[in-house]
Design a protein that fits this description.
Layout (H helix, E strand, L loop, with lengths): L29 E7 L3 H6 L3 E4 L6 E7 L12 E5 L8 E5 L2 E6 L2 E3 L2 H4 L5 E6 L7 E7 L1 H5 L5 E2 L7 H12 L2 H10 L7 H20 L5 H14 L2 H14 L4 H15 L10 H10 L6 E17 L2 E5 L3 H21 L4 E15 L20 E5 L5 E4 L9 E5 L4 H19 L22 H12 L2 H6 L15 E7 L13 H8 L15 E2 L2 E3 H4 L7 E11 L3 E10 L1 E6 L2 E4 L18 E7 L2 E11 L17 E7 L10 E3 L24 H4 L3 H4 L2 E2 L1 H8 L5 E2 L5 E2 L38 E8 L2 E8 L4 H7 L4 H5 L9 E9 L2 E12 L20
Parallel strand pairs: 11-13, 11-14, 14-16, 28-33
Antiparallel strand pairs: 1-9, 2-3, 3-8, 4-7, 4-9, 5-6, 5-8, 7-10, 11-12, 15-16, 17-20, 18-19, 19-26, 20-25, 20-27, 21-24, 21-26, 22-23, 22-25, 29-30, 31-32, 32-34, 33-34
Helix pairs in contact: 4-5, 4-6, 5-6, 6-7, 7-8, 7-20, 8-9, 9-10, 10-11, 11-12, 11-13, 12-13
Length: 848
C-alpha cells in the first residue's frame, strides 16, 4: 500500500499568521502577580533585591515586572503598579533606568519603556517596609480613554471620573468608586471609553457584593460574573470561597482551576500549581454512565526518522518518559474535568526497545498489531524529538488516530490529542457546534491564557456531557449489524468527472443536501449483505461513480432511548430517522477507510421512539481526486453498515429490526416547532445533552417567530434586519451591517476573531407585545441564564425565569465548525429598555 503524504490530513500545531495580536483590546487589568515584601517565595518570584543604588548613598530596592502573556504573547497595554488600601508613603521610582517621579497608590509605567519586553526592571529609592504589597497589572486603559497615563495616577490630568474612580477602587471604597466611574459616562465619551468606565464600575460592584455573600452558591455565581467581566483576581477569590462552602461541588473546583489559569497563567509548567484543582473536580464528578477514551502511549527508545536526505535514530530515556507520564497525566485530568466526568481517560503506557521505522511518518504499517483493533482511540508515538502532528482514525494503525509526539509542553500534547477527539466529534456529527482544534482560540473567556485554555474551553462549553458519553473511535463488533434492508437506486448525484477532494467536502455536501428521500414503498429490492456490510456494487455492478442509492429498514425499541449508532460507508452516508435528517453526511471516507468495505467508521447516536421507527439511509459513491486515492490496491467499493449498541458497546435489550412494514405501522411524529407559541424548556433539564433534546431552529423558524420575513444570518452571528421596517421602539437595538468594532447589545453577536461579545438580541413584537430572542454563545449559557433578572415588564408577560424560556439552538455554516457555529435561543423579554453593554443585563445585587 502506498500512502502519499497528500492523502493524509496531517494536523499540526500552529499559531495563525496575523497582522497584529488578536488579543489587542483585551488587556483589561490582567494580573501580573503580587510582590509581598518579607515573603521569601514572592521576593524570589520577582527578583526582589534591596541593595545599593547607582546614586551614591541612596539605598534602593529593585524588582522585576513581567508583562502578562496570553495565547498570543503580550497584547497592547501598559504595566500598572498598585499599592492597595490607604497609601501614605511615596517613593521615587524608575523603570529601565528612567526616572518616573514618585510611586503613588496607582502608578502607570510608560508604554515606551515596556513595549515588546518580557521583563521590566523597576527601582524604588529607599527601603520598602516588610508587609508592603505591590500588585502588578497590565491594561490598555490609556488606549480606550485616548489619553496618556504615565506615573502617579493621583497627579495626572486624566479625566477626573476615571482618576478618582480608580483611586477609590484601590482604596477599597467601592460604592464611591462606582459612583465616580459611572458619573463619567457622558455623551462626549467614545464608546470604548464609556465601556471601560462601566466595566470598572461593575468590577467595583462585584467587590462590594463579595463582602455581602454568605453562601457557596452566591460566591459561585459571582465567580461566573467575574469570568465574564474578566475580573480574574476576584473570580479566584469567589470560587475559592465557593469550594470552601461547597466542598463536594465539582463545578466549583473546576471553575477555581480555570480562574487560576486566567489569573496566574497555565503556560507550560505553571499548570503544576493548578492541576490539583482540576483533579479535585474530576474526582468529584460522577463516574456512573461515563464513557472512556483509550490512549496507547508508546515510548520508542529507537525511532528512525528522516533527516534531510538521510535518516537517524532518535532515543528516549527514563527521565523523558517520566516527564511525559506527568504532563500527559495533566491532560488526562483536564479532560475528565472538562467533560464533567463523562469521558474517562484510559492510558496504556508501553516501552518499545526495538527499532521502529518512522521515516514515512504517515505510514501506519510499521505499527500495525501493537494493539488489538477496536481497543484504542489514540496512539501516541513518543520519542526524544520536538515534532508533533496527528492523523485521524481513518489514517492510523488498527483504527486508531495516530500521533507523532515529541517532548513538548502540556498544551501541545493536549492540542495534538484533541485533533483525534475533534475528528471523532465532527465525523460522527455528535459534535454539533464543536469547532476544529485549530479554531478553539476563540473559545473561552477572552483573552485566553494559553492555547490549552482554548482547547479546554472548547471541550467544556461546546462539547456536552451527552456527546462525551457516546463518542468513540473504534470498538469490537459485539452486537449484530443490521442486515435486513430494502433498497432502490442507483441515481446520479453529479457528473462522473466531478471529484471529492476533501474529508469534509462542502461542495459535495451541498449537492447531497439537495437530495430528499423517496417514499418508503418505492424501496422493494433486497440487497446483497455480507457479514453485516450491504454491498451495493454487487447489487448494481455497472453503476457509475458519483451515484447514490437508498436503503430502508424498521427498528423496534421497547422505549424512548438514546443509542449509539455505528455507521460505515463508502463513500458517504446520510441518515433519516422517522423522516427527520439526523446524520447529514459531513464525512467522506478517505485513506484507510476509502474503498475498504470498512464497517463502523464513525460512532453517532440517535434517539429512538418507543415502538417501530423508520430508518432511511442514502449512500453516495464518489469519484475522489488523485491525491486521495490509494493507487493500485483496492477496487471501487460502494456500500454501508449500521450497528446499534449502548454507550458501552453492549446490546440494547429489546432492539430488533425488519425491512417488511410492521402491521399497523404509523410513523412516529416528531414534535413540530410551533412559531406562534414556541415550546419552552428549562435549561437545567436539557443542558447536559441539549443538541439531542432541543430542536434545531432554522432561519425560517426564526423568521416565523419574529415576523421578520427577510432576516438573514451570517457566520459571525449577525442577524441582518436591514430590509425590515422595524418600529421606532426597536430601531435603537438594530445595526444595519456587521461591524467588528461594535459591541453594543443589539442584533450582532460580535464573534469576529477575537470574539468580543457573548450575547445578541433580536427584538420583535408578538401579539402586540415587545419580545426578545436572546442568542447566547456556549460560554455564556450558565452566567446569563443564572444571573439574568426578571423585571416587572417581563413578569407581566408570564416570564418567571429566563432559564425556563429556552426554545432551541441555531446553527450557521462555518468552515472551522463543520457541524455549524452554534448559539442557544431564548424567547423572552428583557425589559422595555436594553442596556448598552451585555454585562449590564446581569444582576449580582441579589446574590446571597
Amino acid at each position: 500500500m502506498k500512502l502519499a503524504i497528500s492523502i493524509i490530513v496531517t494536523l499540526v500545531c500552529a499559531v495563525p499568521v496575523l497582522a497584529q495580536n488578536p488579543h489587542d483590546g483585551y488587556a483589561f487589568w490582567l494580573p501580573c502577580g503580587e510582590l509581598r515584601v518579607g515573603d521569601a517565595a514572592s521576593e524570589k518570584e520577582f527578583g526582589y533585591v534591596q541593595g545599593s543604588s547607582a546614586v551614591p548613598g541612596a539605598a534602593a530596592t529593585t524588582f522585576v515586572v513581567r508583562p502578562r502573556r496570553t495565547r498570543f504573547d503580550v497584547p497592547a497595554g501598559q504595566i500598572v503598579l498598585v499599592r492597595p488600601g490607604k497609601v501614605t508613603s511615596t517613593y521615587d521610582i524608575s523603570a529601565e533606568g528612567t526616572a518616573l517621579g514618585q510611586m503613588g497608590a496607582v502608578t502607570f509605567l510608560p508604554t515606551a519603556l515596556t513595549k515588546g519586553k518580557r521583563e521590566v526592571k523597576v527601582e524604588v529609592k529607599g527601603t520598602l517596609p516588610r508587609g508592603t504589597r505591590i500588585k502588578m497589572y497590565f491594561t490598555d486603559d490609556a488606549d480606550k480613554l485616548g489619553v496618556e497615563l504615565t506615573g502617579d495616577l493621583s497627579k495626572l490630568p486624566t479625566p477626573g471620573s476615571y482618576r478618582e474612580g480608580v483611586l477609590r477602587f484601590w482604596e477599597g471604597a467601592y460604592p464611591a468608586a462606582r459612583t465616580r466611574l459611572l458619573g463619567g459616562v457622558t455623551p462626549d465619551k467614545t464608546p470604548a471609553a464609556a465601556s471601560l468606565l462601566r466595566r470598572l464600575a461593575r468590577w467595583a460592584a462585584a467587590y462590594e457584593q463579595f463582602a455581602k455573600i454568605k453562601t457557596g452558591r452566591g460566591y459561585y455565581d459571582l465567580g461566573l460574573f467575574c469570568m465574564h467581566g474578566r475580573y480574574w483576581d476576584l473570580a479566584v477569590d469567589s470560587f475559592r470561597k465557593a469550594t470552601e462552602l461547597m466542598p463536594r461541588d465539582p463545578d466549583a473546583w473546576f471553575m477555581l482551576a480555570d480562574s487560576l489559569a486566567y489569573r496566574d497563567s497555565d503556560l507550560d509548567m505553571r499548570m503544576e500549581n493548578i492541576i490539583p484543582y482540576y483533579q479535585k473536580a474530576a474526582d468529584l464528578y460522577p463516574k456512573e454512565g461515563s464513557n472512556t477514551y483509550r490512549n496507547h502511549i508508546g515510548f520508542f527508545k529507537q525511532f528512525r526518522v528522516r533527516e534531510g536526505d538521510g535518516t537517524r535514530v532518535l532515543t528516549m530515556n527514563d527521565e523523558q518518559m517520566d516527564y511525559v507520564r506527568k504532563v500527559w497525566g495533566w491532560c488526562s485530568t483536564i479532560m475528565e474535568a472538562v467533560s464533567k466526568g463523562r469521558l474517562r481517560m484510559v492510558n496504556t503506557y508501553k516501552v518499545y526497545e526495538t527499532e521502529f521505522d518512522n521515516t514515512a511518518h504517515t505510514d501506519p504499517r510499521p505499527f500495525q498489531g501493537l494493539f488489538e483493533r477496536g481497543s484504542t482511540e489514540a496512539f501516541f508515538k513518543f520519542t526524544g524529538w520536538g515534532a508533533s502532528d496527528c492523523m485521524g482514525h481513518d489514517c492510523g494503525p488498527d483504527r486508531s488516530a495516530s500521533i507523532n509526539m515529541g517532548l513538548r509542553e502540556w498544551d501541545v500534547m493536549y492540542h495534538e490529542w484533541n485533533h483525534s477527539l475533534d475528528w471523532a466529534l465532527i465525523t460522527s456529527e455528535l459534535g454539533i457546534g464543536t469547532p476544529v482544534t485549530h479554531s478553539s482560540d476563540w473559545c473561552g473567556f477572552q483573552p485566553i491564557s494559553s492555547m490549552g485554555m482554548g482547547h479546554k474551553s472548547s471541550n467544556r462549553y461546546y462539547t456536552t456531557p451527552g456527546m462525551y458519553q457516546f463518542i468513540r473511535g473504534s470498538d469490537p463488533y459485539t452486537t449484530e449489524h443490521v442486515e435486513d434492508w430494502v433498497v432502490s437506486g442507483p441515481f446520479r448525484l453529479m457528473a462522473e468527472t466531478d471529484k471529492v477532494d476533501e474529508r469534509f467536502s462542502r461542495e459535495a455536501r451541498d449537492k447531497t443536501a439537495a437530495v430528499t428521500p423517496p417514499d418508503i414503498a418505492s424501496l422493494t429490492q433486497k440487497p446483497v449483505v455480507e457479514d453485516g456490510y450491504v454491498d451495493f456494487k454487487k447489487v448494481w455492478p455497472d453503476a457509475p461513480k458519483n451515484a447514490f442509492a437508498f436503503a430502508h429498514t424498521y427498528v423496534y425499541s421497547p422505549k424512548k432511548q438514546k443509542v449509539r449508532m455505528w455507521l460505515g460507508a463508502d463513500d458517504n452516508i446520510r441518515v433519516w430517522l422517522n423522516g427527520r435528517l439526523v446524520h447529514k453526511g459531513v464525512y467522506w471516507a478517505v485513506v484507510l477507510f476509502q474503498e475498504a468495505k470498512e464497517k463502523d467508521q464513525v460512532s453517532s447516536a440517535v434517539m429512538l421512539e418507543p415502538g417501530w421507527n423508520s430508518l432511511m439511509v442514502q449512500i453516495t459513491n464518489a469519484q475522489h481526486g488523485e491525491d486521495w486515492m490509494i493507487p493500485g490496491e483496492r477496487e471501487d467499493c460502494w456500500g454501508f453498515s449500521v450497528r446499534f449498541c449502548d454507550h458501552l458497546n453492549r446490546e440494547v435489550p429489546g432492539l430488533r429490526w425488519q425491512s417488511a412494514r410492521p402491521a399497523g405501522f404509523v410513523m412516529p411524529q416528531v414534535e413540530q416547532f410551533n412559531a406562534r407559541s414556541p415550546k419552552t424548556y428549562r435549561w437545567e433539564d436539557v443542558a447536559d445533552d441539549y443538541t439531542m433534546l432541543l430542536p434545531e431552529l432554522t432561519l425560517q423558524d426564526l423568521r416565523d417567530v419574529t415576523g421578520y420575513r427577510t432576516m438573514t444570518a451570517n457566520d459571525d452571528i449577525f442577524f441582518d434586519l436591514s430590509k425590515e421596517n422595524v418600529s421606532a421602539a426597536i430601531a435603537p437595538y438594530v445595526i444595519g451591517k456587521p461591524d467588528r468594532n461594535e459591541t453594543a447589545l443589539n442584533n450582532q453577536l460580535n464573534w469576529f476573531f477575537s470574539p468580543k461579545e457573548m450575547a445578541a438580541v433580536v427584538r420583535y413584537s408578538r401579539g402586540g407585545q415587545m419580545r426578545d430572542l436572546l442568542f447566547l454563545r456556549p460560554e455564556a449559557y450558565d452566567v446569563f441564564l443564572r444571573l439574568l433578572p426578571v423585571g416587572p415588564e417581563a413578569a407581566k408577560q408570564g416570564v418567571k425565569r429566563h432559564a425556563d424560556q429556552v426554545i432551541g439552538y441555531f446553527l450557521v455554516p462555518r468552515e472551522d465548525s463543520p457541524n455549524g457555529r452554534i448559539v442557544l435561543v431564548v424567547d423572552t423579554f428583557l425589559g422595555n429598555r436594553l442596556p448598552t453593554d451585555e454585562a449590564d443585563l446581569l444582576d449580582i445585587g441579589s446574590l446571597k
